[in-house]
Amino acid sequence: MRVLCAFPEAMSSSSSRPPSCLALVALFLALLLPLSLSFHAGNRRPLPVDRATGLKEKTLILLDVSTKNPVRTVSENFLSLHLDPSIIHDGWLDFLSSKRLVTLARGLSPAFLRFGGKRTDFLQFQNLRNPAKSRGGPGPDYYLKNYEDDIVRSDVALDKQKGCKIAQHPDIMLELQREKAAQMHLVLLKEQYSNTYSNLILTARSLDKLYNFADCSGLHLIFALNALRRNPNNSWNSSSALSLLKYSASKKYNISWELGNEPNNYRSIHGRAVNGSQLGKDYIQLRSLLQPIRIYSRAGLYGPSIGRPRKNVIALLDGFLKVAGSTVDAVTWQHCYIDGRVVKVMDFLKTRLLDTLSDQIRKIQKVVNTYTPGKKIWLEGIVTTSAGGTNNLSDSYAAGFLWLNTLGMLANQGIDVVIRHSFFDHGYNHLVDQNFNPLPDYWLSLLYKRLIGPKVLAVHVAGLQRKPRPGRVIRDKLRIYAHCTNHHNHNYVRGSITLFIINLHRSRKKIKLAGTLRDKLVHQYLLQPYGQEGLKSKSVQLNGQPLVMVDDGTLPELKPRPLRAGRTLVIPPVTMGFYVVKNVNALACRYR
């Protein structure tokens, strides 16, 4: 429709316009308004899930959980911990008796504590009684002369309940240790980048301190022995390992064992490759050493601790299982999400990155089921990035999305144990920093331990995804996992269910509980970043309250936010949380 009406530029007011022209304009607007309203009404569609922040998501997601039978049951120690042998080098091993550090580790028990890493195969045991005289290293004169004696005096304080050595180290000692560790960190990085490692001496006293930490924290120690000590015919030289076994047996230390770390890399770091069948023979030899020792005749033996399952690694695992598949109690491998390429915080939110682990699980399971069907599989080392992680990223709130999704994915796919690399000190992937302060992934792990039981339940959802466009892959940015609530948590009766939900969308999501979950009381544990740094924050808040250790060095109470029965769950954008659905009386969860 065209309106033929011209206005001279000199006519500035409507009163000066011709009446006939004004009538035409009025008629045109009257006809156009209904057409405009009907056009907009006919195009009211739900907003796409990935639009800008602040847009409200209209889609309601219906959620139900199968409560009759669990789809998987994982170990009670499913979430376990790791310590790297580099703590011998930088001196932090001497501070494992810290009351604060032990308290933090106790919060994550029961769990395994694996002592192993790249320096495992350069570790030698020596039964020295006075390691202070043999230790060298950089640092202030006072520190080098006196800190060993100060540690001995501070270790005198005993936990009367368990007979553990628990210390309250003076602040000056910790400050001096941090100075030494900072200098040693440069040495360790140089070794890592050059792929050449110096030998480490583990003394009897150091082993005592390591075991004291594990035992007092309620953790079961898994010790990885040096597999690179080789005889001329390339068989394993077990002399140092036998000395360690005899000493630990004399102390009645309850330890499980491994041999080596990432044997697929031996050629690059040692110049001598060890194939799968030879490694299998070495494990059989280790089992023969353990059997005559009464306390270790039935000790756990795990391996081969291979790296990411590329073609050569799969070949090594294949040869190993042919020879020693029945010798090990679980098959172990390690996973690194990214080889140091993560440079910005949003990389941790990419669904393609979160999904890379699933394909590797299937590769490992295929080989294991070929030779030892039903054998348990462990993911023994899980890190976000190589080279110890990325500062201000791997230790931030954003890294938690990767960690929580890893826990959910592994349990759903039947992996029995996942060992987090590392509990303390090593790189930036740790749970606790050098000030003994818990980082975001620690609080996430603590909530997981308190609320999640070993039984995995099937989740059923409706309205989760849009219809995919031709040629385009739509990946979930809303991830929902369900378990029976931890039966050790006395705040909830057996039969309760815990959901944990990751929302990577930049818009909030509404979830309506249906079926067996309908009209049930829900306790919310929403974990969000705390402070001005947002996703890069190293502090978190639970239901709006910052999480910090209590002044007396104890862990805070994790208080839920009760939600009204039948209320729709509203999941804020780019957050993660746990939701305990009470009194479901789920059959799968009523019995252990």
From TrEMBL:
<dbReference type="GO" id="GO:0008283">
    <property type="term" value="P:cell population proliferation"/>
</dbReference>
<dbReference type="GO" id="GO:0031012">
    <property type="term" value="C:extracellular matrix"/>
</dbReference>
<dbReference type="InterPro" id="IPR005199">
    <property type="entry name" value="Glyco_hydro_79"/>
</dbReference>
<protein>
    <submittedName>
        <fullName>Heparanase 2 (inactive)</fullName>
    </submittedName>
</protein>
<dbReference type="GO" id="GO:0043395">
    <property type="term" value="F:heparan sulfate proteoglycan binding"/>
</dbReference>
<feature type="signal peptide">
    <location>
        <begin position="1"/>
        <end position="38"/>
    </location>
</feature>
<dbReference type="GO" id="GO:0030198">
    <property type="term" value="P:extracellular matrix organization"/>
</dbReference>
<dbReference type="InterPro" id="IPR017853">
    <property type="entry name" value="GH"/>
</dbReference>
<dbReference type="GO" id="GO:0005615">
    <property type="term" value="C:extracellular space"/>
</dbReference>
<keyword id="KW-0732">Signal</keyword>
<comment type="similarity">
    <text>Belongs to the glycosyl hydrolase 79 family.</text>
</comment>
<dbReference type="Pfam" id="PF03662">
    <property type="entry name" value="Glyco_hydro_79n"/>
</dbReference>
<dbReference type="GO" id="GO:0008284">
    <property type="term" value="P:positive regulation of cell population proliferation"/>
</dbReference>
<dbReference type="GO" id="GO:0016798">
    <property type="term" value="F:hydrolase activity, acting on glycosyl bonds"/>
</dbReference>
<dbReference type="GO" id="GO:0016020">
    <property type="term" value="C:membrane"/>
</dbReference>
